TrEMBL record:
This is Integral membrane protein. The chain crosses the membrane at residues 71-89, 101-121, 164-181, 230-250, 262-283, 303-322, 334-359, 379-399, 428-449, 491-513, 539-559. It comes from Streptomyces noursei. InterPro entries: AB_hydrolase_fold (IPR029058). Keywords: Membrane, Transmembrane, Transmembrane helix.
Length: 769
């Protein structure tokens, strides 16, 4: 059998099988295997398939695509990026002490993102709406939806504490929605079980002798996500309770209410106790990949969210207690917590840098690892930056809208506006964009230089009798140069991460030292400095809001436009390929459904029919195919050959996730299966070589393939051949030849395992070329 797995953007089974009449063999509307209608009963007619295999297509596009509402998942982008940092750790030995420290730091960083989201929702609902605007007659005028909260009206809800209690429903709904979404996707994606074990197969060997992706529990994160979901839900609820407590305690201390102060301090103790319990659960919730995690959740874990809700209810009753002398003036007490969250995140990122450095020192043969093992800390820092932009953008834009024509924070404005630290963070955003623009310009210059250099060699790839065409040569060379930008991504990530760390630290320091927005803090400075600060503050505020809108627009377009899906989808599909190990509110991992599907299909089919199988994967489908082969036992794996094309296995996954797709892991996969061939092109911006070879003379890589297939117009090609880039590898004659070689090798006997397969950085790879 030949099992086809499509890549990013999805392909219909009719297109994959080249037949309009197809039939579902196994699966459901989300993911399924299809055959041509004529091949549906192939196992009953084995004589008809002795020269050509049974072709079957696995379609998984519905796992990542859907209606436009899925664009809202892009709001969860910071959580997804933080989850990526967990998997980017250097390839140190599994028993290295730094492995557990690294994972713990990422989980704690992910917890701060949940607290930041809940705090941002409290900022909009409690501070800007219920505390500042509803308590200011000038601001509340003309806003009917806030009229019943106006202190001048003397209504029951007009006191500050009751206004805050009513407004706290909004952040509570946000946390509840995230819990519901995580629970819903958890039931659909993360409950697929691995195939049954075969006695004496590799699944019975010790876990330390198998690569991580081959462990039984790697694609089964049901219990872990449930525990993290309980902890993060409790953290969000406790953040809301803390916001209510700080404001009410401040009012009681000023009024001298001894009894109410005692109640508030008791509730504060309960909040701190539950917060400590949340930290303990996050501390102890590490992945168990050697076997399926079937441990029943303890009562403390299941009860934690309900205990947090109970404390929130008690706190709401305490905050709603009548306080006739209470008034809301200035910002809501406790908004300085935004600066504290930023400092905490910075400390965790720096600790992650130190841990990653020790892990990289202990790693083996990691010459192509992105950012020398610092990819995880850099991505973790970017997740904090994206979360800050989203939270700050929503708060800034909401403050501008609710304040009318005035500018929040200025002397003539009715309300103080968002916390000062958010204004400072917005002010440094233009400087960060200048750095990004400079890197983009340098990338453009690099493309021009590479295009000029490559253009000299392009004509030599084709028939020398063809007439030279300068425009055609430049177009081909430009495509190759632009495709090479993927290898320069670490430079962009490093530059953004470094500048973000410096500017973020400066923003927090400026906010704490001046306690005023940048425009007001520079009023006594030189006119140029003051004008620049005001311009940066205003421009950064708009850029933050525009970033939120742009993110949602791009996401909606990506799920409706197939061309945009192929462009944007690769980054999203790389992020959602990995299980939710650090943040339970991240978008679901489609591989926890797709990989068990493929593993079950290969294992059961080869065992039932004593069959041989070629699994053929394009782009992201090649990653799913390799992950599924890793899950097979050695007996089944020796009956399987792998054909990949346009594959990011080494170029993206091997460089950014070396602990799981580094040279040792890929070498082991090559050694234990029947054969593996990989096709790639210089014009492909995603796929690349695997960089492996064996002593028997056969290399995994076949390429670089010539693209386009013909330089100019010929008798055989009267029209200009298209530059294929990442798509349509089947159009190349080399594809049919390599496919035929793999099928010919799969004879009736079980092939012997090959040995002495090594990673080769000097093979015909993109780096050496």
């Amino acid at each position: 059998m030949e099992l086809l797995v499509h890549g990013v953007g999805g392909t219909t089974p009719q297109e994959m099988l080249g037949d309009p009449r197809v039939q579902r063999i196994t699966g459901d509307d989300t993911a399924a295997c299809y055959r041509r209608t004529d091949d549906a009963d192939a196992e009953q007619r084995p004589d008809d398939y002795r020269t050509e295999p049974v072709r079957e297509a696995y379609c998984w596009s519905n796992l990542t695509s859907g209606n436009g509402a899925r664009a809202l998942w892009l709001v969860l982008l910071p959580f997804m990026v933080a989850n990526l940092a967990h998997w980017m750790r250097p390839a140190a030995p599994p028993d290295h002490r730094g492995q557990r420290i690294y994972d713990l730091l990422v989980r704690l960083l992910a917890l701060t993102l949940t607290v930041l989201l809940a705090a941002a929702a409290c900022e909009v609902a409690l501070d800007l709406s219920a505390w500042q605007c509803a308590g200011t007659p000038v601001c509340v005028t003309g806003k009917s939806w806030l009229g019943f909260l106006n202190p001048a009206g003397g209504g029951w809800w007009s006191t500050p504490g009751r206004r805050l209690v009513l407004a706290s429903l909004l952040p509570l709904l946000v946390v509840g929605f995230l819990w519901w979404l995580s629970h819903r996707t958890w039931s659909a994606y993360e409950s697929a079980s691995p195939p049954p074990r075969r006695p004496g197969a590799s699944r019975d060997t010790p876990a330390h002798e198998r690569t991580a992706l081959g462990l039984d529990g790697f694609w089964y994160g049901r219990r872990l996500v449930a525990r993290l979901r309980a902890a993060h839900t409790a953290a969000g609820v406790l953040t809301i309770a803390a916001a209510l407590l700080v404001a009410s305690l401040r009012a009681d201390s000023r009024a001298g209410a001894t009894a109410l102060t005692a109640v508030g301090r008791t509730l504060t103790g309960l909040v701190l106790l539950l917060a400590a319990g949340t930290l303990v659960i996050v501390w102890r919730t590490a992945r168990s990949e050697a076997a399926r995690d079937e441990e029943t959740d303890r009562l403390a874990v299941r009860a934690l969210p309900y205990a947090a809700l109970a404390v929130l209810a008690l706190t709401a009753g305490y905050a709603a207690w009548a306080r006739p002398a209470a008034r809301s003036h200035g910002p809501l007490p406790g908004v300085a917590a935004f600066g504290g969250i930023a400092v905490c995140q910075s400390v965790l990122v720096l600790a992650l840098v130190v841990t990653a450095w020790f892990l990289q020192r202990a790693a083996r043969d990691e010459t192509r690892t992105a950012l020398r093992g610092m990819g995880g800390p850099a991505v973790a820092l970017l997740s904090c930056a994206v979360a800050g932009v989203l939270s700050g953008g929503v708060a800034q834009r909401f403050a501008d809208w609710i304040d009318g024509p005035a500018t929040p924070g200025q002397d003539h404005a009715p309300i103080p506006g968002p916390p000062v630290v958010l204004s400072w963070q917005a002010s440094v955003l233009p400087a960060l964009l200048v750095v990004v623009a400079a890197v983009v310009v340098l990338a453009g210059v690099r493309v021009l230089a590479v295009r000029k250099r490559v253009a000299r060699d392009v004509p030599g790839l084709y028939d020398p009798r063809e007439r030279p065409d300068v425009l055609r040569t430049e177009r081909i060379a430009g495509t190759i140069a632009r495709a090479g930008l993927t290898d320069a991504a670490p430079v962009l990530v490093a530059a953004i991460a470094a500048v973000t760390l410096v500017l973020g630290a400066g923003a927090v320091a400026g906010a704490w030292l001046t306690d005023r927005a940048p425009g007001r803090a520079t009023e006594g400075a030189a006119p140029f400095v003051h004008a620049a600060a005001e311009a940066a503050e205003s421009l950064g505020s708009w850029l933050m809001g525009a970033g939120v809108i742009l993110l949602l627009t791009m996401g909606r377009r990506a799920y409706r436009d197939h061309s945009a899906r192929r462009t944007i989808g690769i980054l999203w599909d790389v992020g959602t390929f990995w299980p939710r190990a650090a943040h339970p509110f991240a978008p679901p991992c489609y591989a926890e459904r797709a990989v068990p599907d493929l593993t079950w299909r290969m294992a059961t089919w080869t065992e039932q029919y004593d069959g041989r199988l070629v699994i053929s994967g394009h782009s992201q489908g090649s990653v799913l195919a390799a992950a599924a082969v890793w899950q097979l036992d050695l007996v089944t794996r020796s009956r399987v050959a792998l054909l990949t094309y346009g594959s990011p296995l080494e170029r993206l996954y091997g460089r950014w996730f070396p602990a799981f797709f580094g040279p040792p892991a890929l070498t082991g996969l090559h050694r234990e299966m029947d054969d593996w061939r990989n096709l790639w092109r210089f014009t492909d911006p995603i796929g690349g070589p695997i960089l492996l070879s064996c002593e028997d003379g056969r290399a995994v890589d076949e390429g670089p393939l010539r693209d386009p297939l013909a330089f100019g117009r010929t008798l055989q090609n009267p029209l200009p051949a298209q530059i294929l880039g990442h798509g349509d590898y089947q159009a190349d004659p080399v594809f049919d030849r390599v496919r035929a070689e793999l099928l010919a090798r799969l004879g009736p006997g079980i092939p012997a395992q090959r040995t002495n397969c090594t990673g080769s950085q000097a093979s015909s790879g993109r780096s050496s070329a």
